[in-house]
Amino acid sequence: MKRWAAVWMAYVLFAGLCDTALRAQEDLLEIQTDEREQMERDIFGSTTSVRTAPPLRLPGGELLRYTVRWEFIEAGTAELACSTETVDRRRVYRITAQSRSAPSLDRVYFVRNRTDSYVDVHGFYTLKFTKEQNENGRLSSEYVLYDHPGNRWWSLTAMTTGYLPAGTMDVVAALYYVRLVPLQVGAPLADYMG
């Protein structure tokens, strides 16, 4: 009987600790959400431009669709979309990349990925990058804010920060940047960075 009482007491203590930890985690998440929203307002609300890129204009409303095939089998699709938006009084390009496996292959390897890149219209540098991945049940996400005037980046998923060189772009923004720049054979890439 004493043994059952000890087990019961341990269970009650453990459940209480878990409940307390869960409430503390929920409080921390609420604080982090408030801080993230404030950081976004600060970054998007800033009118400071760290550089002016060559006059690059993305076609608004552009949608590129790709089908991925292996022999005669459709493996999946990918879409790249670009739109111009205003976020906290700042004009930005929102570039979205999505990929998904074909329904016929979902049981073999399920893919649902999405990235969103928010790029300054005038300087063509990234302000925010988000990524949601679901590959065969393995979920991951990334949420990064770029403070160019302050030369800092923040990963709000990993809760890390670091130095940010001026004019930094994420991989999706860099893809569009290279698409728009009239590249010349033999010219250094630094010549195109503004």
Please, what is the average pLDDT? Answer: 79
Q: Helix fraction?
A: 25-40%
Structural class: alpha+beta
User: Biggest sheet: strands side by side, in what order?
Assistant: 1-2-3-4-5-6-7-8
Intertermini distance:
78 Å
- Which band does the percent of strand residues land in? 35-45%
Give the number of helices.
2
Radius of gyration: 23 Å
Give the number of domains.
Answer: 1
- Tell me the major beta sheet: 8 strands, antiparallel
Overall shape: it is globular
Low-confidence stretches: 4-25
Order of helices and strands: HEEEEEEEEH
Counting DSSP E segments of at least 2 residues, the number of strands comes to 8
Describe the structure.
It is a single chain. The chain is α+β, with helices and mostly antiparallel strands. The protein is built from two helices and eight strands. The chain has an eight-stranded antiparallel sheet. β6 (138-147) and β7 (152-155) form a beta hairpin. The radius of gyration is 23 Å and the shape is globular. The N and C termini lie far apart (78 Å). Mean pLDDT is 79; it is low at 4-25.
List keywords for this structure.
alpha+beta, 2 helices, 38% strand
